[in-house]
User: Which sequence fits this backbone?
DNA sequence: GATGAATGAGGGTTCATTCAT
DNA sequence: GATGAATGAACCCTCATTCAT
């Protein structure tokens, strides 16, 4: 099945399988997931999965790419908005990252990456290159711009961007592990975080 | 094998197995780990593993307990030190968490928890109860005490403790996934983080 | 697809498929051959193969028939030549068998027959009836005629024809298995064989 | 499972599996054989087969080695007997080969070699090196010795040994394919063959 | 008729767990 | 208690065959 020559209905089928795989991976983890279940969830025969993905690892890639690619667009779009103040840009940037990670699909991707990434080098590189690095750089630019404009105090541009993204990661991990034990108010958390760190860097 | 009636050498044996399992789980993940490999690494026969742990899940528990229990002590110890200023206590608290998560065994535990936690409820509860919740509470106490003493600005006691722990989690995840692609200076990162958030909450 | 009502181009298509199958069976064996590969080799779609052959076994039959039928004609033609001396007729007969088996397509057929024959009874019967038995009888007639005419010593007519065909079979098997390890000079081998056995039976 | 450190009962188990595999391979061919059936025939669990053979190919090797090795001894023993006349030595040599190939296990091996040999290079080389080449050389020595002693006519030493082994191969193939359609009297065939070729080369 | 995507039974292999020694 | 051979359920993947277009 050539990816370039897929018909409309084939593309839909491929998406069905990716969607099903995401769901099953979320429920059972990657190793624990059975292709049988993915197929059933996608309402296709087991063999059909292998028409679209050459093996289970390719399916994992498909799932991760499927979620990461649109997210890249969102991060880029947030970064492109350069009219606002540095603080507002930072708020927006962190907000986008936090929302994606704290809820929905990117949450599952993070879990898959942490669980399976160490075994699949190319996947780790892809994830770093496409989304993590650009995200860190976007934050870094906000910091540098804010310092340059005098909005943030001197030295802010040198801070690790991870300081500003950490809470979003924490929220994601919390959601994966403890959401039923102690639910987290994502918006309030991100607000606390931003208020605190922005106060910490404001001139 | 009753845990109460173990001889000295049996306890040592058990520890060998736990140590070996931690190593193999770190290398291959929990699902990817073979009991054969754990046994070989511990220099015992495969059947012996089952004398000390009734199945693979129990071995996972053993590994996690083995790392978490001493860490609990460290967190408690850090929290007990109430002579210092709130800021110093917070620095110390975050430092302990960050060091444990950013390097060494707790890093592996976090990965195991994120990967397998959703499948093993009791483990998640244990992890939350024993280490996460106490850690969050210890941070919360620092914040409340600092606010009460006027060291931190009003409202600080209401902030989510996750704001202060997030960077440590981020460091752990980074170490798991990207350490070879972009190494992280853990000390510098934690310093950036603490400087920023402490500035953000200081009165 | 009724074999009687095929158009010219359909017949050509069928032959293409048979030719392709012979090639793939030669390369991968019958069990190892994939219908996909046969179709690709014949430059038709996979489904098309099933328009001409109801299943893989029928394709095997088609391949074997396709090679055996013309060979039958050759054996018959060689047998029909009754003008020559018995020795010359025998030489010719063995030569035809040896050439067919030692090189080219009949070689592949022999391999397929030995590998798959035991599983496909009808095929074995066909092969025996159409080519093996007639071949043995043709040799037997040469021997009997030569004995009757005094050209061969008494008793020659009672000898097993297999004695005279064995070297050709050996050559075929050798070619299948050891051609790269120790190439065989087919003509020289057959000459040695004929010289020896003819000396052995000459009056 | 280390082959050197096997206990008596493990060796017996291994032999059981090899024996079972030979039987199933004989019945269904190598590709058609299911490990399940081999295990059942050997009265062990499927997994046990994999304790003794790392995969199906290794099992095929085990089967072939198991039959070829004792046969090598027989060929060597027959070749060692240098007291007899060249003709008797040749009779004996051909007899040993013919018996082995015409009946019993070597027959199955030949079928397996012809069917699967082309796919398993190492197996072909092993078979050639261990049994075919030594067999051909043993025959060649008989011929050369007989010529040297004047027992055989000049030039006999130059003849292809395959001329003398061919009928045995033919018998084997016949037995594989046509034994039910036209049974072969192996002893009579070999006698015919030897009488004929020995007459053909006698001085 | 021709196509090739879809199907799903089947089989090789792995590995957690058991148990006889 | 310690061992490691034995077990068999489970699962990924292949590929002959079908069938909607």
Assistant:
């Amino acid at each position: 099945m050539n990816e370039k020559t897929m018909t409309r209905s084939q593309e839909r089928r491929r998406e069905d399988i990716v969607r099903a795989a995401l769901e099953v991976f979320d429920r059972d983890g990657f190793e624990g997931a059975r292709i049988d279940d993915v197929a059933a969830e996608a309402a296709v025969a087991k063999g059909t999965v292998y028409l679209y993905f050459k093996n289970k690892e390719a399916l994992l890639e498909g799932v991760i790419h499927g979620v990461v690619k649109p997210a890249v667009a969102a991060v880029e779009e947030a970064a492109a908005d350069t009219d606002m103040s540095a603080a507002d840009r930072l708020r927006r940037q962190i907000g986008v990252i936090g929302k994606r990670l704290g809820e929905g699909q990117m949450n599952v991707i993070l879990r898959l990456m942490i669980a399976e990434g160490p075994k699949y080098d190319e996947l780790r590189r892809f994830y770093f290159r496409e989304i993590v690095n650009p995200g860190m750089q976007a934050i870094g630019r906000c910091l540098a711009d804010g310092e340059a404009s005098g909005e943030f105090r001197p030295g802010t541009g040198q801070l690790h961007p991870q300081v500003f993204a950490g809470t979003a990661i924490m929220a994601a991990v919390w959601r994966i592990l403890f959401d039923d034990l102690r639910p987290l108010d994502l918006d309030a958390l991100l607000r606390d975080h931003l208020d605190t760190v922005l106060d910490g860097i404001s001139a």
